[in-house]
Structures are given as structure tokens and as C-alpha cells.
Design goal:
The protein is of the alpha/beta class and 117 residues long. It has one domain: 3-Layer(aba) Sandwich (Glutaredoxin). The chain is built from 4 helices and 5 strands, in the order E-H-E-H-E-H-E-E-H. Strands 1-3-2-4-5 form a 5-stranded mixed beta sheet. Helix 2 links the parallel strand 2 and strand 3. It starts with a strand and ends with a helix.
């Protein structure tokens, strides 16, 4: 599986407008840790549950600045057009689960709100 590339032009549609949660890796083509994170994510995420995208900071510097990304790899988790989580650097299984748990928390809060009304 290849990560789908995102540019500043396609960001709004592919990331903010996505119907499923998005895990976006800010990377750099010469970053060995970025490649390791990609392989780890490929092995540990069910692609149907979440969209995995990549943006190269060398050609999309304005997006990196907008989201305060100054190190690679940086992972941002988006849901419903909003940033829900962030991880900088390499991650292990526990850190991945912690990052993705933000989606469960958001879903549960929405359920509680719906129950109240």
C-alpha cells in the first residue's frame, strides 16, 4: 500500500473534507525515520478504518508552517475537518493506539451529546 500524496492544493478536499478519519504524515523524502514510520503504519492500521495520507514538507512548506510542523516525521490525526491528535517522531504500537484513541473519545462524546437531546 502506498500513502496517498497530498499537496496544499488538495489538502482541503482530501484531509479536511474526508468522510473518514485521516492520519496525515508530514514527511521529507530523505528522512529515514519517515520511511520507518510509513512501514510501521502500513503494518499496523486497517486501511478501511482510516485514510492514510502523506505531505512532503519540502514542496509544501506553507502547510507545514500552517500546522506548526518543524520536524519529520510528524503525524496529525484529523476527524470531521479538525486536528484531533499529533505525534512527532517515530512511534511504537502503544503510541499509535494512544493517538488513534482520540477518535474513540470523540465518537463517545458525540454519542453522549446525542443522548442528552
Amino acid at each position: 500500500m502506498e500513502f496517498t500524496k497530498v499537496t496544499s492544493e488538495s489538502f482541503e478536499h482530501k484531509v479536511l473534507g474526508a468522510e473518514v478519519p485521516v492520519l496525515l504524515e508530514f514527511s521529507y523524502k530523505y528522512c529515514s525515520a519517515c520511511q520507518e514510520v510509513k512501514e510501521f503504519l502500513k503494518d499496523n492500521i486497517d486501511i478501511e478504518e482510516i485514510k492514510i495520507l502523506e505531505i512532503d514538507i519540502s514542496t509544501n512548506q506553507k502547510m507545514a508552517e500552517k500546522y506548526n510542523v518543524d520536524k519529520t516525521p510528524t503525524l496529525l490525526l484529523f476527524s470531521h475537518g479538525k486536528e484531533r491528535g499529533r505525534h512527532i517522531g517515530y512511534l511504537d504500537q502503544d503510541e499509535l493506539e494512544e493517538l488513534l484513541s482520540q477518535l474513540s473519545i470523540i465518537s463517545r462524546i458525540k454519542e453522549i451529546i446525542m443522548e442528552l437531546f
